[in-house]
Amino acid sequence: MSDAVLNDLRAWLAAHESDLLRDTIAMLRIPSIEDEPEPNAPFGVANRQALDLALSLASDDGMRTTDLEGYAGYAEFGEGDKMIMSLGHLDVVPVGPGWKHAPFGAEIDGEYVYARGSVDDKGPTMASFYAMRALKAVCPDLGVRFRQVFGCNEESGFKCVERYMETEEAPTFGVAPDSGWPLYHAEKGIANFEITLPRYVGEVELLEVVGGQRPNIVIDQCVAKLRVGASARGHIETALEDQWDRNITATWEGKVLHIMGIGKAAHGSTPFAGDSAAIRVLRFLREIVPLSANRYFEELFDTTELGGAGIGIHGSDVPSKNLTSNLGIVTTEGDRLRLLYNIRYPVTWTGEELTARCRAFLAKLETPMELDVVRDSPPLYFPLEHPMVRTICEVYEAESGERREPGTMGGGTYARAVPNTVSIGTGWEGDGGAHETDERLKVAHLAKMSQIYVHIFYRLAMLAKESS
Hints:
Blueprint: H1 3-15, H2 17-28, H3 45-60, E1 64-68, E2 72-78, E3 83-89, E4 107-109, E5 112-114, H4 122-138, E6 145-151, H5 159-167, E7 173-179, E8 183-187, E9 189-198, E10 204-211, E11 221-228, H6 230-241, E12 248-253, E13 256-262, H7 277-288, H8 294-302, E14 316-317, E15 321-322, E16 324-333, E17 336-345, H9 351-362, E18 370-377, E19 380-381, H10 387-400, E20 407-409, E21 421-425, E22 440-442, H11 443-466
Parallel strand pairs: 3-6, 3-7, 7-21, 8-20
Antiparallel strand pairs: 1-2, 2-6, 4-5, 5-22, 8-19, 8-21, 9-17, 9-18, 10-11, 11-13, 12-13, 14-15, 16-17
């Protein structure tokens, strides 16, 4: 990239930093959590509002815009057969309790803007969009097209990008600004396994267990009800006296013991970074029930093991290391419990292998458990020597002065659903974690991301032309 073009792009972005912050704040104030579908708004009115804002900003800048029935939209400029694409998402996960700042207030406190979606993924998406704007203003006639995609269902299904791929073209080179620096060249497979089993009935009766909002969030609040027969009352009251978990409260209402567990939310790809309230509750139940119920509650609790050993799927490979398993939702329906696990499995595995291992393991348990595969998104893997991988690494080192090796991740980005695409970095140390309370992004990092993104887009455009 010539110094002159690079300097012009940097100058344009520096001159528009206040505009970038203004538009990002406007986007962050839209509570774009998936909701009931409406006409032309398959993921709810708020997601529609976020998409409308993005497409309006692009149209005002003179870009060509396309709305894919509210599933997603994109803005494009330039001409040519080759196309460089960036895919960001405007939907966010639910909020949960414990926020000190208004989740959709986009309040600036000190050096940070606080809001759900600031890091995942509205902030990076807006930084990417402004990088596209800079290219359009400074060097629009490069002989390639640039396209910014705005998705609306990344957090809960990828239906947006699935809809995109039904009718739209894949990029020559694409990036999803939704991971770590410089890029992630491998993304684990993602599977949602639903395991159902009967409610326990005996000296005690497990009336219900309820917790969780999405499979890919560590459960931060969980409740259970246990009806206790006369023969087990003394045992349980004695066990309650030895209860040690201060995040668990248990109160009697006649014969029913009401149990409440509190934990800490985290992204489902890193369940060890959170504190599952469901694990606390199921462990508590295992510890207090009489011997006659011990095997059931032992096997139930074991299913929550974060490495998947309790459902027979633990393991690892060299590129992506250990499998993780997050119990993201537990519900009670009639006489059955339903447990939904969000599993991130190694990049050299297949979903079929994973499913077979789980079924074989469950078949050996004393408690009858049934498996339903709700979702299976295959892994993504680009070799380190791939030209796109090498180019992005070179740009990051040039911009930051820091050499980093490409990473692997348990999280899933749009890159796994679109050919020729990898995920790239967002934010730096000090920024809040995705899916956590008081999610935050340093204001200076918003501008810094846009500077790196514009360099990446330009270099990928040159790479695309060289490959003609």
